[in-house]
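Notes from the pairing session

We agreed to fold both candidates in a single pass and log them together. This is the raw record for the first candidate, unedited. Please don't reformat it; downstream parsing expects exactly this layout.

Candidate A
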Amino acid sequence: MNPLVSKILVDVARKRLQKKQPKAVNVSNRDLVPLVRRLQIELSHTISEYIFIVIGVFSAGFGLKGFLLPNNFIDGGVTGISLLLENITSLKLGVLLVIINIPFIILASKTISLKFALRSAGAITCLAFVVHSVNYPIITEDKLLTSVFGGFFLGLGIGMSMRGRSVIDGTEVLAIFLSRKLSVTVGDVLLIINIIIFSFGAYILSIETALYAILTYLSAAKTVDFVVDGVEEYVGVTIISSKHDAISSMLTKNLGRACTIYAGKGGYGKQGIQADRDIIYTVVTRLELPKLKTEIDKIDTKAFLVMGVVKDIKGGMIKRKPFKD
């Protein structure tokens, strides 16, 4: 790692340690090694997440300006609402994207986390800037290609942004919120929202445009599914680590997530069956998975994780209690 970055991390680690332990005046570098290692992992994960967001913003901008905007097409969600309003008002698309997303960002700060809301606000602002300033080439005027590939690049942008723990379309936040309140799936909520948008599109523009918009939405939705396997899909995570006590404590105290602990033994090594160890099982959403991996890496980079899709859950606290961030 760059010596300057290492020095900054050591200084940050020292300040954090002294904040937690005010009496620790003389702190050696050896004492700071575990905390510096955690900061390095946190920094690397944060950088990768912001790279996902940047790729997502430029991909969505390409889908909009390279395909949808030149052909007067619309999509679902906030993007579709903004495209509709651009056709009937004098406001620019970039301005509309920011204004319409504001209520959803406020909702995200209250229902998910402030950090998630701030990231999403930054991603949406960057998308508005890209749409306003970057001159993408117009790829095609064919309506079918515009629907399919415009939706693909827009969906790719949404999916990559979600992998960076943010959203560039606020209706996903509303869908998550309503799914927790009304016991319906996120997909059902998004479908209802988009049916309303497409109905207005048919009235304001034309039925043909609305039909192509549905095709665009389906293309975008399938792309998002491919990139992140859904807006709030549940993932069961089995964690096997020699530092199981620290990991279970992190899950319950730091992240506010319940877990189930099984008694197990290690079965791999030169001497066969090894010491007893606890096997941890927890369920998180796809949006929360990057955060969980980051926190586990801070404790044990050699931890063995087994992740599998969980179709639905009943009981517990996961649907009503998001991660502490």
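Candidate B (folded immediately after A)
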Amino acid sequence: MKKKCFQGVRIVALTLALSAVFTIAAFAAEVKVGTVNVSTTLYLRSSASTSSNILGSAANGAKVVILSKSGDWYEVIYKQTKGYMHASYLKASTSADFAIGTGAINANGVNFRKSPSLSAGIIAMLKKDKSLEIVGIENGWYKVTVDGKPGYVYPDYVTVKGSSTTTTTTTTTTTTVTEKNATTDAATNTTTTNTNTNGSSSKDSLRSDVVAYAKKFLGCKYRYGTMNGKTFDCSGFTSYVYKHFGYSLNRSAAGQVSNGTKISSRSDLKPGDLVLFRDPKVNSGAASHAGLYVGDGKFIHCSSGGGCVKYNYLSDSYYNRYFIGGRRIIN
């Protein structure tokens, strides 16, 4: 009887040991945040080579999901497309809030946790194919919302929808950008620089992303002095939106007059540009109110009068009277 008990103990111990091994293997793929650090744009490629197809491009300050490293390259997800970016032009970090995209659970019984830790409380057990929105990365975990509830899921169990490598190359335009990803020719031991052309489409795409992100906060309440993702004041809203994409704006509307480059004419405004107003009855300084242009004469802003994040038109009586110009943050 004692012998059987001893054998049972050994079996349990072995089972626990194997379980620990499999647990370590299962939780091997921590993701990181990559922030693009270039003076122009950085290409997303189909493989870890400057001669591979270009899948897209990211402007300075854009954020990507770093999946793994292969030599001098990172495998990443950018705008729900999987590809490769040269590691020397990405600044890696462990945490950031940014819109990654829609994902789906790829296994049954996946823990949806309260914080990014295996010891954290479990909110729910998620079934395979359950949809979620990935809104950031924290300490190797995906920060997500499931049915409107915030929480964390380990990245091994999440498939980012659309994140498959394609072979489509970007369309070139007359604006030339140099990709400074140097490669060494082993035969001659000489260094060459691969140069590709890419237009302003990447900047336009980033501006569109800024507008799309801003729209997520429609209806959020106005509260003076706040910018916490739930309540904002006018400049807090514009600052919060741009911070999400790695841009730091001055905190006040008056201060934002000096951010970016000046846009004097309404006809020159592009989506994502700051629009600024000065009502001398409210503030006699450089500006009293700020918003973000979305196109077609419309802008989004956190309005003290309206009490929330909402749309208005530059042609509306009040805003038409006090409009003083715009500032372009993404140049």
